[in-house]
């Protein structure tokens, strides 16, 4: 019998999959490796599962959040096997590593899929994401670079020069945390917005007094969605987002727009992923505060992130 074309391609160009389990979303990436070491994207998508919903109060992943997230992972693993991948790597970030019941979540995911979700440290998360930024943006070798990835539960910062990582760390500054704390899922007053910005600034104290970098690179769902809104992308185009620029004025305009709208109205905005409507205001506030603390008028956007770095680190 003739074998399927997809299977033949997988033999010639081996395919690998990465699943990145975050506090707000699960990201899924399949790529095939070519003989010259380059990679071709086969699948790259995300599902909002709100793994960290309610964790601020309980410290645990809820039963419903486990079920939603395991269901998403199961679908991704099935899809990866349908593409005849050679291996699947799954990692868990802030929502997984900080939960008191993380072992129960990891066990549930492994029982359903046969794939173990490995919780990784914030420092490791920062370092791996930096690999992806350096590989895809072709930045000046001598430039002092700060790359940051803001997610639902935490933000990762990596300071480097060229290919060398100087420092990396993670802080518990994530969009889902402030959305729940300040009620940012809907329209809010200017006073509430100011209080949220003040809290984010206080929680980003590790950025105080640092030298302003030559290049600031931002990645993660908040930043890529804000870029898609700026560009009016429907559907989302990763190649248009990769390497784009967000100005401080762009961020300010979007903050003011989201502040006046409830989640239902935000879902009608072209470029904004509907399931991100509740957390986009908090994400934009984090981005604005990072730019303030590092005295930057603009940032370069990377559509690539942790999942792409894991691909390089595990299978490159």
Which residues form runs of ≥5 with pLDDT under 50?
A: none
Q: What is the radius of gyration computed over CA atoms, rounded to a whole number of angstroms?
A: 19 Å
Residue share in helix: 40-55%
CATH top level class name of the largest domain: Alpha Beta
Shape label: globular
Supply the helix-strand structural class: alpha/beta
**CATH architecture term of the largest domain:** 2-Layer Sandwich
Helix tally equals 14
Order of helices and strands: HEEEHHEHHEHEEEHHEHHEHHHEH
Strand content: 15-25%
CA(first)-CA(last) distance = 33 Å
How is the largest sheet built, in terms of strand order? 8-7-6-9-11-10
By CATH, the superfamily of the largest domain comes out as: Exopolyphosphatase. Domain 2
Extended strand count: 11
Largest sheet: 6 strands, mixed
CATH topology of the largest domain: Nucleotidyltransferase, domain 5
Number of domains: 2
Mean pLDDT: 92
Describe this structure in words.
Helix 6 (122-137) packs across helix 14 (306-315) and helix 11 (248-259) runs antiparallel to helix 13 (280-293). The longest helix has 20 residues, at 63-82. It contains 14 helices and eleven strands. The protein folds into two domains: 5-120, Nucleotidyltransferase, domain 5 (2-Layer Sandwich); 139-307, Exopolyphosphatase. Domain 2 (Nucleotidyltransferase, domain 5). It has 316 residues and is α/β, with parallel strands linked by helices. 45% of the residues lie in helices and 22% in strands.
């Amino acid at each position: 019998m003739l074998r399927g074309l997809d299977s033949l391609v997988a033999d010639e160009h081996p395919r690998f999959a990465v699943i990145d389990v975050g506090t707000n979303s699960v990201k899924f990436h399949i790529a095939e490796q070519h003989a010259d070491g380059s990679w071709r994207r086969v699948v790259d998508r995300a599902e909002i599962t709100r793994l960290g919903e309610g964790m601020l109060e309980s410290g645990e992943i809820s039963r419903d959040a486990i079920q939603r997230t395991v269901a998403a992972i199961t679908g991704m693993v099935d899809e990866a096997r349908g593409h005849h991948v050679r291996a699947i790597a799954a990692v868990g970030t802030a929502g997984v590593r900080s939960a008191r019941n993380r072992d129960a979540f990891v066990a549930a995911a492994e029982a359903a899929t046969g794939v173990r979700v490995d919780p990784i440290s914030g420092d490791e998360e920062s370092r791996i994401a930096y690999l992806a930024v350096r590989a895809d943006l072709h930045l000046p070798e001598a430039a002092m670079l700060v790359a940051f990835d803001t997610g639902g539960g935490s933000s990762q910062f990596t300071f480097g020069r060229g290919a060398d990582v100087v420092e990396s760390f993670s802080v518990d500054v994530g969009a889902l945390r402030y959305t729940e704390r300040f009620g940012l899922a809907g329209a809010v007053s200017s006073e509430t917005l100011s209080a949220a910005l003040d809290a984010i600034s206080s929680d980003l104290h590790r950025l105080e007094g640092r030298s302003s970098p030559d290049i600031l690179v931002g990645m993660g769902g908040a930043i890529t969605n804000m870029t898609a809104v700026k560009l009016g992308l429907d559907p989302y185009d990763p190649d248009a987002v990769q390497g784009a620029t967000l100005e401080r004025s762009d961020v300010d305009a979007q903050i003011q727009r989201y502040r006046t709208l409830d989640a239902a109205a935000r879902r009608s905005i072209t470029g904004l992923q509907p399931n991100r409507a509740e957390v986009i205001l908090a994400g934009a506030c984090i981005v604005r505060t990072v730019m303030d603390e590092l005295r930057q008028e603009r940032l370069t956007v990377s559509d690539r992130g942790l999942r792409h770095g894991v691909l390089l680190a595990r299978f490159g």
